């Protein structure tokens, strides 16, 4: 029996922004929420305890990577993914579809599933909807995703229509492959590329099948932000108001604010952690590229208005010194700051929606940001 539910607490009077709570078997998630990405059973550069200190209530794991190494059955023998990585809060696993389809010539799509070669050792594997669900259940995730094809951009309408239809058939097989007694939730993924009518068809088909929540896939794959927002506006109102709405792989702080304004409840993206390792730091006024010479003797914190551990204890000059010398501590501190910023951005949005002032929060977000050249 599912232990999953969603409670809508507040709606913004001037936008589609929503404040809610997701109930899972391992705790409650406040929405809108940003979910740090822990592809291989770790959010790179972060201890689980530090993630909790920064307010992370749910993180992601990746089916494709954990299936290949160390293997989902090994993880299960060691107590499941939560025990394996020492994380007792909810975990969402993606289906592995995006990683498989990004392999290009190393994979072949068929009705059955996807035959692919491992990026690790070249070994051959077949990932089907049934196997994707089995791997995610074996890992012990609290929210699992249907197996779908992540449609590349740009794509012809004929290709998008065919791919979206295939993902719909796979979604039905995922639902049929579910075990009914493990307490996890299963989300369907709306596809349709940049075609509003195909998004509508996909959303309607998935609701006919019936899922615990719904995601928008195939966004932030190279399209302009305006096209992304158009697809959010086309698809999100078609989804049930009493279930969570998740936009996968998105994105920049601006994407998050605009997604919230359009009714998104859940986001994930590697951007804060990957950028951190590359010395790009997010602040209330824009990006700081810490390797720039201007910071060599700068005694200020990354963001003078930030109250995170990093900004309270370290200067830009020191962080630049660490980064220039490839010190591991640079990645750790940068990641902590960036996740603090992203998680705080969503906490602020939740408070603003509850207070009926999300429009002001959104305006203030843009007012404070400077041109890239000033960051």
What is the element layout, followed by pairings?
Layout: E1 5-11, E2 18-24, E3 27-31, E4 33-35, H1 48-53, E5 59-62, H2 63-68, H3 72-77, H4 81-85, E6 91-94, H5 97-101, E7 107-109, E8 114-117, E9 124-127, H6 129-139, E10 143-145, H7 157-177, E11 185-190, H8 196-209, E12 213-216, H9 225-235, E13 245-247, H10 253-261, E14 266-268, H11 271-277, E15 280-283, E16 286-289, H12 309-313, H13 316-324, H14 328-354, H15 358-368
Parallel strand pairs: 4-14, 5-6, 6-10, 10-11, 11-12, 12-13, 13-14
Antiparallel strand pairs: 1-2, 2-3, 7-8, 8-9, 15-16
Structure summarized in a few sentences:
The chain has 375 residues and is of the alpha/beta class. The chain has helices at residues 48-53, 63-68, 72-77, 81-85, 97-101, 129-139, 157-177, 196-209, 225-235, 253-261, 271-277, 309-313, 316-324, 328-354, 358-368, and strands at 5-11, 18-24, 27-31, 33-35, 59-62, 91-94, 107-109, 114-117, 124-127, 143-145, 185-190, 213-216, 245-247, 266-268, 280-283, 286-289.
Describe this structure in words.
The protein is α/β, with parallel strands linked by helices and 375 residues long. The chain has 2 domains: 265 residues, Queuine tRNA-ribosyltransferase-like (TIM Barrel, Alpha-Beta Barrel); 99 residues, no CATH class. The protein is built from 15 helices and 16 strands. An 8-stranded parallel β-sheet has the order 4-14-13-12-11-10-6-5. The protein has a 3-stranded antiparallel β-sheet with strand order 1-2-3. Strands 7-8-9 form a 3-stranded antiparallel β-sheet. A hairpin with a 2-residue loop joins strand 2 and strand 3. The protein starts with a strand and ends in a 7-residue tail after the last helix. The mean pLDDT is 95.
């Amino acid at each position: 029996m599912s232990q999953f539910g969603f409670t809508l607490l507040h709606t913004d009077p001037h936008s589609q922004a929503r404040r809610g709570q997701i109930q899972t078997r391992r705790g409650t998630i406040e929405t809108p929420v940003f979910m740090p990405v822990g592809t291989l059973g770790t959010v790179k550069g972060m201890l689980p305890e530090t993630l909790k200190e920064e307010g992370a209530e749910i993180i992601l794991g990746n089916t494709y990577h954990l299936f290949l190494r160390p293997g989902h059955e090994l993880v299960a023998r060691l107590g499941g993914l939560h025990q394996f990585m020492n994380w007792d809060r909810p975990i969402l696993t993606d289906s592995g579809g995006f990683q498989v389809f990004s392999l290009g010539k190393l994979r072949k799509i068929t009705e059955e599933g996807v035959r692919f070669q491992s990026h690790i050792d070249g070994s051959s594997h077949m990932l089907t909807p049934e196997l994707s669900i089995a791997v995610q259940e074996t890992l012990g995730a609290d929210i699992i995703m249907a197996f779908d094809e992540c449609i590349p951009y740009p794509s012809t309408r004929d290709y998008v229509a065919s791919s979206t239809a295939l993902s719909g058939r796979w979604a039905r097989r995922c639902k049929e492959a579910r075990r009914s007694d493990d307490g996890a939730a299963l989300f369907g993924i709306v596809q349709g590329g940049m075609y509003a009518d195909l998004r509508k068809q996909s959303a309607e088909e998935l609701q006919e099948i019936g899922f615990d929540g719904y995601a928008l896939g195939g966004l932030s794959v190279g399209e302009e932000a305006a096209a992304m927002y158009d697809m959010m506006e086309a698809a999100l109102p078609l989804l049930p108001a009493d279930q969570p709405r998740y936009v996968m792989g998105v994105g920049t702080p601006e994407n998050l604010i605009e997604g919230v304004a359009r009714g998104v409840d859940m986001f994930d993206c590697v951007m804060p952690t990957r950028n951190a390792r590359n010395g790009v730091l997010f602040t209330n006024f824009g990006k700081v590229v810490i390797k720039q010479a201007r910071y060599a003797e700068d005694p200020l914190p990354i963001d003078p208005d930030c109250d995170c551990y990093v900004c309270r204890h370290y200067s830009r000059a020191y962080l630049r010194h660490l980064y220039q010398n490839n010190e591991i501590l640079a990645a750790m501190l940068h990641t902590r700051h960036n996740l603090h910023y992203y998680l705080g951005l969503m906490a602020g949005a939740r408070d603003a929606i509850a207070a009926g002032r999300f429009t002001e929060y959104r305006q203030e977000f843009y007012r404070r940001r400077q041109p890239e050249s000033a960051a």
